[in-house]
Amino acid sequence: MNTEATELKIYIENDGRIYESSTRPIYKNLATKKAKGEYVHDLAVKAFLHLATFGAKNYHREHGSMGQSWSQMFDTETRRQVAEAMTAYFETEWRLGNFRDLLPKKYQSKSK
Fold it and tell me: Which of 19, 23, 49, 106 has a Cα-to-Cα distance from 98 of 20 to 30 A?
């Protein structure tokens, strides 16, 4: 993962507003999909790619310059690297038994 991707990933992971508005709902949705047996890796990457784009726009708004757009600051490949890393993190944590608390009650007993 390149430096820009690392910076963006750290920013997304440490911004409380982004976590509450976007990251947590994605985790919840993906955990439910895992519990139902409907999880698709490529769709998870797509969800995290949307999150990476949202994070890139926020990062640029807070730290960027007028002479460079957010998409120049974090190009598509950089955002894709972030999405892949976040997907890998989710999948690893799910295998370790995490994110079960985000499941709706009807799926909590099935996933243990």
Answer: 49
